[in-house]
Structures are given as structure tokens and as C-alpha cells.
Design brief:
- It contains twelve helices and seven strands.
- Strands 1, 2, 3, 4, 5, 6 and 7 form a seven-stranded mixed sheet that branches.
- With about 350 residues, the chain is α/β, with parallel strands linked by helices.
- β6 (about 170-175) and β7 (about 185-190) form a beta hairpin.
């Protein structure tokens, strides 16, 4: 190998925190890796246009709050290929074996990446329908869940996996052919809270503190806080929906009460009129019998309306009680209070350990 090539490889490995051991395990050679990086760099503008197109279309979905996109950096692509082809490592993936400049765009599925962010957990189902009506998926979408998540309702359409880093997110790989060459775009759908956590996790964990136990511990706590925030947001949304529904029912009942009150007044007036006619009949049996029947009919109306009012009062008393939103969701939402206590206690301990002791002056 030429000195220049060896220098380039060593510089590349150092910049991307790749050990010489992993490079030796890799099934890719340097000239092929360079060609892939150069080809991707040449096509960056085309792939940026693809990313922008996906982002514009996804932003039109009513359930989407905001959209982010990126095209993979050429050197990051090269680094990924090295790790994916390094046998006997955690990152190894046999799909990458035989990768070259002619087929890398079909093997690497995240050359173009888009993130669709939403506010509430359940918004993901509406976004899923929107996306799948627009593009063809390369494979079944993957729904990543946290360890311990117990709500799998509506996830039958996804391949459900527990994410090793511990966050919720749906991953799609969509196929498109913008310029006669097939390309895959990875679309991730997650809540704003999950996005915030994952961004901070990535920023502080890689590459400097990837194995630091203290950093990992606090990131796990932060992860649970993000999950609790999602639960709280969903709970508040459902609470508002139920309160609005209850208020609408009250308004409807009040209108009905006004209507019944008006009918009661009309019925009472009718009964008074019938009594007067009865008193004025002066012993005419036929007239009396007819008036008595009419009188009974009006009294039955009043009884029926009275029963209806009683039922509605019962409904009101039921709605005066706390809302019927899932208590388990509320419990999940308030877990963060205990977590905050743990964070504060641990921070105090950490500071006391980290604080340098002053030397005693003799």
C-alpha cells in the first residue's frame, strides 16, 4: 500500500474513532470505500432535493408538528460501511458484504433521512396512514418501544421491537426513483419529547462518553422523564377532550330542560282549561267523560316528563364525578415527580464526590 493511502486511511480511522482492529476485520477495501464516498458526494444535490420533497409532502399531514431532514455526510457513510462490514462486532450486518459503488444506494437505506415530529403519542397512527398512502415501503415499518411499555394497542401493523437505547419511534424505509436510480429514504416518526431526548443522548454519548457509567445513568433517567412527559401530554389532551364533551352534554341538557319547562307550563294551562270546562259541563255525562280522558292524558304527559328529568339529573350527578380517563396513564404521567427527586439526590451525591478536598494547612 502506498504511503499516501496509508496516511489517508489512518487519518480517516482517527477522525471516525475506528480502531485498527475493526478496520482489519472489515470486509471493505480502501479504494472501494473511497469510490463510494466520492459517488455519494457527487450526488449530494440530487439527494438533497429528494429529502426536501419528502419533507414538504410530510409537512402537509395535519398530525405532523414539524419536519427535519438530512442527507448522510459522505465520510459518515464510509464510516458506517466499515462498521457494518467488520465481522465479530456488534455493528456487523451481512447485508453489507459485497457493497460497492454500483449497489451501495440500494443497501444503505438511510442516505436520505427525514424525521416527522408530532405532539401526542396517538398521532402516529394518523401519520402512518398518511405516509403509507403516498409511498411504497421497502419492508414492514418498525415500531420501537421502551422496555416496560405495556400499551401495544393498534401496533399490529408494525414490527414491534424494544430499542436498545430505550426510546419510542417508528422507522419506515420508503422507495423512490427521482432520477432513474432507485433510492431509499428513511422516515422516522416520533414525539417532540422523544426527539429532544435522542438528540441530547446522541450529542453527549458519542464519541467521548459512550462507556461512561455515570453519563449513561443520567441519560436513562432523562429517558424516563421524556416518556413520562409524553404520557402527561396525552393525559392532558384526553382530559380536555372529556371536559369539552361533558360541557357539550350539559349545554344540551339545559336546552332540553328549557324545552320541558315550557311544555310543562303549556300542559298545566291545558289542565286548568279542562277543569274549567269540566265545572261548566253541568252534569252532561258525555262531555264529562271526554274531559276526564283528556285530563288523564295531560297528567300522564307530566308524569313522563318528570321521569325524564329525573334520569337527566342522574346523568349530571355521574358527570360531576372525576373523568373516566385511564388511571394507569395518569400514574405513568406523574412518575417523573419521583424521578426528579432521584435526579436531585444523585446530583448532590455526585457533586460531593467530584468536589476536590482542600488540603489542611498546618
Amino acid at each position: 500500500m502506498e504511503v499516501e493511502d496509508r496516511s489517508s486511511i489512518e487519518s480517516f480511522l482517527e477522525r471516525n474513532n475506528i480502531s485498527t482492529e475493526d478496520w482489519d476485520k472489515s470486509d471493505i477495501d480502501w479504494p472501494t470505500l473511497q469510490k463510494i464516498g466520492a459517488d455519494h458526494r457527487k450526488k449530494l444535490d440530487q439527494r438533497i432535493e429528494t429529502a426536501e420533497l419528502f419533507a414538504r409532502i410530510i409537512q402537509r399531514c395535519p398530525k405532523v408538528h414539524s419536519v427535519r431532514w438530512r442527507v448522510k455526510d459522505p465520510e459518515h457513510l464510509m464510516e458506517k460501511i466499515v462498521r457494518k462490514t467488520a465481522k465479530d462486532t456488534k455493528s456487523y450486518n451481512e447485508i453489507y458484504l459485497g457493497i460497492n459503488v454500483d449497489n451501495y444506494h440500494e443497501i444503505v437505506t438511510d442516505l436520505v433521512g427525514v424525521r416527522a415530529l408530532h405532539l401526542f403519542k396517538d398521532d402516529c397512527f394518523g401519520i402512518d396512514e398518511y405516509l403509507c398512502n403516498l409511498w411504497t415501503t421497502k419492508e414492514q415499518p418498525v415500531y420501537y418501544v421502551r422496555s416496560g411499555d405495556d400499551n401495544n394497542t393498534g401496533l399490529e401493523r408494525f414490527e414491534v421491537k424494544t430499542h436498545p437505547a430505550g426510546y419510542r419511534s417508528i422507522h419506515y424505509v420508503f422507495e423512490s426513483t427521482p432520477l432513474k436510480q432507485k433510492i431509499y429514504t428513511e422516515v422516522q416518526v416520533r414525539t417532540i419529547f422523544e426527539e429532544g431526548w435522542s438528540e441530547i443522548d446522541h450529542e453527549v454519548r458519542y464519541p467521548n462518553f459512550s462507556d461512561n457509567e455515570q453519563v449513561s445513568y443520567f441519560l436513562r433517567i432523562f429517558n424516563r422523564l421524556a416518556g413520562s412527559a409524553d404520557e402527561m401530554g396525552t393525559f392532558v389532551k384526553e382530559l380536555v377532550t372529556e371536559l369539552e364533551s361533558t360541557a357539550a352534554q350539559f349545554a344540551e341538557m339545559e336546552d332540553e330542560f328549557i324545552k320541558i319547562k315550557k311544555e310543562n307550563g303549556e300542559n298545566i294551562d291545558k289542565i286548568d282549561s279542562l277543569f274549567k270546562d269540566l265545572e261548566a259541563s253541568n252534569g252532561k255525562n258525555n262531555s264529562k267523560n271526554k274531559l276526564v280522558k283528556e285530563l288523564k292524558a295531560e297528567v300522564e304527559k307530566l308524569k313522563s316528563q318528570s321521569q325524564s328529568q329525573s334520569k337527566r339529573r342522574t346523568i349530571i350527578s355521574i358527570h360531576d364525578k372525576p373523568t373516566s380517563i385511564s388511571i394507569s396513564r395518569l400514574k405513568a404521567a406523574i412518575d417523573h415527580i419521583e424521578l426528579l427527586k432521584t435526579v436531585n439526590e444523585t446530583k448532590s451525591i455526585t457533586k460531593s464526590i467530584a468536589r476536590p478536598r482542600r488540603k489542611k494547612v498546618v
